[in-house]
Amino acid sequence: MLDIVKQINTTPTTVQLSRTKEVQERIHELKGNLSSGGSPDGYSKVSNPGVLISTSAALTSLDSSQNDCNSLLSFQQFTVTQLLSVKAINVAFNSLLAQAATSNPTGFPNFQNDVAGYLTQLTTVLNSRFHGESAFSGMESNKNAVINLRTASGLAAGSPTDTTYYLGNTSTTSLNLDATNTVTLFQVNATHPAIEKLVRALRIATTANASDSQDPALRNALDLTNQVNITDMGTAIIQASFPVEIIKNALAGIDPLRESYTQIMQNQVLDDFHATLMALEDARSNLAISEFLIMQESRALADFLKGV
Prior knowledge:
Elements: H1 2-35, H2 49-102, H3 111-126, E1 129-130, E2 133-134, E3 173-176, E4 182-185, H4 193-205, H5 216-307
Helix pairs in contact: 1-5, 2-3, 2-5, 3-4, 4-5
């Protein structure tokens, strides 16, 4: 008789107990998901893992792009700053030449020393580096842009363009920062007219006679520095500054994109959280049903045994 009782009553109860254990384990798992704000085992419970994974990759790419843009921006700003230093040298040299061309012959006994000083200053500025990268040597930024300009040979009045002092190349490169912003780098190197004319004027000045205000070399050097002041330096600064604005535009678009991608990820995790919460409620409901059935079967078994 006990065997019959076991067959009729105990077997269903065992099944219910097994089901209850499964439900309890599921509840434990779901509680773990909720406590971590979503699925603790990666993307397995997320309704659309492809979106979450691709969005996460996009955020990583944005961070990389932002770092690259910041580095480019700093380099271009450094280039503009150094160009302003070149401009300052040209302005000072131009002033010296203008005075020498209009003053009495004995007023500039240190003229050649001043010229040598400007050549030294210009060499330092043109060979300056930003994090090891030369600003004025084109794409060969691992090289100095110019030789020691004090060692460059003097030039006669009326000499044509001469860039034999230059050590870099004249290559440029264009980078697509995003869908709408493309920047061209290395447009201003040490062969740019604003720089070449200043170098040429200084080299011509090394052959000038500062005691003669009508000296052709003095006059030619003055004319070249006037050209740099009036036209060429402005063009160079604009060319170096234009990439700065493009890079800033690209950077300005990154934060809104990051916010958008972050919102997508948050929505995915939130969806996962709510789905997990609903599953937890279902599991709790199933547990209550299982416990009720076990209680009913236990009472039925007890009543049956009393009758035996």
